[in-house]
Amino acid sequence: MTSYRAPRRVAWVAEEVEDGHVTLYLMPLPAGEPVILRDLAAVIWDVAATEGDQVAARVRDLMSRPDAELDMIQDFLAELVEAGLLEVANDG
Description:
37% helix, 3 helices, alpha+beta
């Protein structure tokens, strides 16, 4: 199982509005382009960065979306790693 973490050179701020929607602002430091993630994308990044493993199961629980496709979540995690917005903590 792959575990993830937020890279040391990425700063972030989360904003939750009254209707429950989440927006996450990521900033690669020192001079990267800001990235905005919303709703499901923000939840996937937050779970991966703060909890590390079992991302798909946790995202499904948090979003009350048992139908969320595992492949879609794993593909998005790979995109985040490739963009330098997440890093792999270990591959076990």
